[in-house]
Design brief:
The complex is a heterodimer of chains A (350) and B (358). Chain A is an alpha/beta fold and 350 residues long. Chain A folds into two domains: 162 residues, Rossmann fold, CATH 3.40.50.2300; 132 residues, Rossmann fold (3-Layer(aba) Sandwich). Chain A is 42% helix and 18% strand. Chain A contains ten helices and 14 strands. Chain A is elongated, with a radius of gyration of 24 Å. About 11% of the residues of chain A have low confidence. Chain B is an all-alpha fold and 358 residues long. Chain B has one domain: Orthogonal Bundle (ABC transporter involved in vitamin B12 uptake, BtuC). The chains are: A alpha/beta (350), B mainly alpha (358). The interface between A and B is large, with 52 and 57 residues.
């Protein structure tokens, strides 16, 4: 019995000390124990609480690693406290726990990419009632749950950059086709409509087909093959989805059409790097998540210091990105998407 | 082993033998049986973690933290109650989180279609019962292993949930209902929904620990055949438990929907593992036949408190998962080590004083 008891005690003690060490480490490791600088924070001006915490959809997501990097750089520039926390899984309930925690810690602002428009709303409202400013970026909540939304790009901007790129790559004349996600994908359909309008300015380009790869790699790959077969005179393909453009590039890179049929659209540099380097793809676009994080951090600062309230027409300066104006629905737009090509693609890692 | 002793003990040892021979009702005194158990170890650990976190982690020891914490663990706590019973019979239900999602979607869609909240909730509960019956019949009538059956229905129910609502969400629930899901009892910080949890916990504890049906659950987990021969209706017991866990999962789904004000097909994805982890941490044997409800409640709260304290201490979610995982492994390992030690120790002792079983 004695031995059993002793073992039991040891087991319990071990688990306790494990938990405690971990808690202690965490407390000391991140930002020096006190996570809540609150009033005593070394605020550079106006005594504002510039503790800004990024809450992405989930951690370990390269896209948000990059946006967080941008946010950190911005916060360093204006002398605030940067932190990024988030759940391991991209679920709204896990995000709510983090919002609650940040509310208790009384951070200056939460910069969140919401996993659900509504599910995080009540928690965010509670945060705002407790004086925490809420900025959404990348993925918005309902407008009445936040102070400001930093939008990566407008639908018009996304449509225009893709038509501009294809026009440039095929010499502003010839047949093109679109390889989209699914037939009822809201974003893609809105962009395709706007692209069709934009094509009115390019009378010699003819959109001959729109096909759907359902954001599946193999399906998109097969649809690309079918497109080339049914339209022998095809000069270019636009794929406004990251899955589609990567699959199409993979097909083109091994086919005869490589270098003859232009491909552009929305893709991530890491997926597209090899195809840009081997000449399959000249140029494609996406908003720059690093700039998005950078702008969001400056927007958070502007709201915290009271420089802006988040209402339409107000202006604030976002460091190296220059001046921004708040638009309709309390939204700030980052600007035109970034174009990636042979010259600049190695500067990006996401 | 202790539980085994207490399982057989209530049947009072009849002594119609000629020789007067006295059997002890229990092998150990009461304080030992109550305090020196795995359940108590978990509860003690919970208390220690709470005390230390209150002292060390800023803003932990507040009623606000308590409120958030209880709201967070409520769905897990709800499902852990019937899950304990199911696991003690030696079965498992992996489809619970998918049922939470399905019930959330049914509830949301019906509300959107114009049904009043109570009616929509009732239909969702019925769907939970039907889902549980499907699991139960496949396990008992068809005789398939519950692990395989519920992996199948995990995919099936989640597929239905996502299929019905697609990527959209129903969000316009009436304010008074969503508020009710978060309402606190006065200034205590304790959410009103905890009353429901407490009532259910008492019911489940009484059924498991103080009724013949509950004895049958343990007996089934220890040996289904022996239980069958001793008059336990094994299949019926299992079927009832699967139906009950379906209903409680649906209830958790309704609560989840109201708490977050959002009905989505992917609600509560992965929650089944959180529930099972908490149940195992609470001292329930995955092989069945052993465990107690107070340990499970301690296990759920321990995971919740650790996560809450570590989040407040700015520990990242990965590290929180690592700590929870290690805790679970340690608790399982420690119980096997203890069992091994006790069996070593019991053998020589068995010769002198008659041990009740073995």
């Amino acid at each position: 019995m004695k031995l059993a008891n002793r073992l039991r005690t040891i087991a319990v003690l071990a688990t306790v000390s494990l938990a405690l060490t971990a808690a202690g480490c965490g407390g000391g490791g991140d930002g020096g124990g006190e996570a809540s600088p609150g009033a005593e924070a070394s605020a550079p001006a106006e005594n504002a609480n510039l503790a800004i915490t990024f809450l992405p959809k989930n951690l370990g997501n390269p896209y948000f690693d990059v946006s967080g990097k941008g946010g950190e750089a911005a916060i360093k520039e204006f002398g605030g406290t940067y932190a990024q926390v988030g759940p391991a899984e991209a679920t709204p309930d896990a995000q709510v726990s983090y919002i609650n925690t940040l509310t208790q810690q009384q951070v200056g602002a939460i910069v969140i990419s919401a996993n659900d428009k509504q599910a995080v709303c009540d928690a965010l409202t509670e945060a705002r009632d407790n004086g925490v400013k809420v900025i959404t970026f990348d993925s918005d909540t309902n407008p009445d749950c936040r102070d400001l939304f930093v939008n990566q790009a407008t639908a018009e901007g996304i449509a225009k950059v893709q038509i501009d790129m294809i026009a440039e790559q095929i010499g502003d004349a010839g047949e093109i086709a679109i390889l989209s996600a699914s037939a009822n994908a809201t974003n893609q359909n809105a962009w395709i409509e706007l692209m069709k309008k934009e094509l009115a300015n390019h009378p010699n380009i003819k959109l001959v087909d729109t096909v759907y790869g359902n954001d599946k790699d193999q399906e998109s790959f097969d649809k690309t093959a079918a497109l080339l077969q049914s339209h022998p005179d095809l000069k270019g393909i636009i794929s406004p989805t990251t899955v589609g453009i990567a699959a199409a590039a993979r097909y083109l890179s091994t086919s005869k059409a490589k270098g003859k049929v232009a491909l552009t659209g929305l893709g991530t540099p890491n997926q597209m790097r090899e195809f840009v380097k081997d000449g399959t793809v000249k140029e494609f676009a996406l908003w720059n998540p690093e700039d998005l994080g950078y702008l969001s951090a400056f927007a958070a600062r502007a709201v915290i210091t009271g420089e802006i309230k988040g209402t339409e027409g107000e202006k604030f300066t976002a460091g190296k990105l220059g001046e921004y104006t708040v638009g309709a629905d309390n939204t700030v737009v980052l600007g035109d998407p970034t174009k990636f090509n042979k010259e600049n693609i190695d500067q990006f890692d996401f | 082993m202790k539980i085994m002793a207490s399982v057989t003990a209530p049947a009072p040892a009849p002594a119609p033998e000629t020789k007067q021979r006295r059997y002890l009702d229990y092998g150990q005194p009461l304080w030992r049986r109550v305090l020196l158990t795995r359940e108590m170890a978990i509860i003690a650990l919970l208390i220690v973690v709470v005390i230390v976190a209150s002292a060390v982690v800023p803003k932990f020891g507040t009623t606000v933290t308590l409120g958030f914490l209880l709201l967070d663990v409520t769905p897990i706590l709800l499902i852990a109650l019937p899950m304990t019973l199911v696991i003690i019979t030696g079965e498992i239900d992996l489809s619970v989180a998918s049922m939470v999602g399905l019930s959330s979607v049914i509830f949301g869609v019906l509300y959107q279609a114009g049904l009043p909240i109570p009616t929509a909730a009732l239909v969702a509960l019925v769907v939970g019962a039907v889902g549980g019956t499907i699991n139960g019949l496949l396990v008992t009538a068809v005789g398939l292993p519950s692990l395989a059956v519920t992996i199948g229905t995990l995919a099936l129910y989640r597929g239905l949930a996502v299929g019905i609502l697609g990527t959209t969400a129903v969000t316009d629930f009436p304010r008074n209902w969503t508020q009710l899901a978060k309402e606190k009892i006065g200034d205590t910080g304790i959410p009103i929904v905890m009353i429901l949890v407490a009532v259910l916990a008492v019911i489940f504890a009484v059924v498991l620990h103080f009724t013949p049906f509950g004895r049958g659950i343990y007996a089934t987990g220890l040996s289904a055949e022996a239980a069958q021969f001793s008059g336990v209706r094994v299949k019926r017991t299992k079927l009832i438990l699967f139906v009950v866990i379906g209903i409680i999962s649906a209830l958790a789904g309704i609560y989840y929907t109201l708490r977050f004000g959002s009905s989505r097909g992917d609600n509560a994805t992965g929650m089944e593992l959180q529930v099972i982890a908490a149940v195992l941490l609470g001292g329930v044997s995955i092989f069945g036949g052993r465990g107690a409800l107070h340990g499970v409640i301690g296990g759920v709260l321990l995971i919740g408190v650790l996560a809450s304290a570590l989040r407040l201490a700015n520990v990242t979610s990965d590290v929180i998962n690592i700590i929870t995982g290690m805790l679970l492994v340690l608790s399982v390992v420690s119980s096997s080590v203890l069992a091994w030690v006790q069996s070593k120790r019991a053998k020589p002792a068995g010769r002198s004083a008659g041990t009740p079983m073995q």
